């Protein structure tokens, strides 16, 4: 999955697979996670948010199942 770099103190890059509704988040700490069932509007909201980390914490982190991929 292609990720794009974002401006954030905690998140390095994000990618999205609209067919499977999987959000991939790479953190500056090195971890990469897949969040499953994330609708396209939530992904778009994250990209548009002034604070990617805050948006992630408020709307994604504890709301969608995830797995660590690295």
Low-confidence stretches: none
Number of strands: 5
Structural class: alpha+beta
Q: What is the percent of helical residues? A: 10-25%
Based on CA atoms alone, the radius of gyration comes out at 11 Å
Distance between the termini: 14 Å
Spatial shape = globular
Describe it for me?
Pfam families: KTSC. With 70 residues, the protein is α+β, with helices and mostly antiparallel strands. The protein has two helices and five strands. The chain has helices spanning 40-48, 52-59; strands at residues 3-5, 11-17, 22-27, 32-36, 66-68. It has a five-stranded antiparallel β-sheet, with no helix packed on it. Helix 1 (40-48) packs antiparallel against helix 2. It is globular and about 30 Å long. The mean pLDDT is 97.
List keywords for this structure.
single chain; alpha+beta; five-stranded antiparallel β-sheet; 5 strands; 24% helix; globular; KTSC domain-containing protein
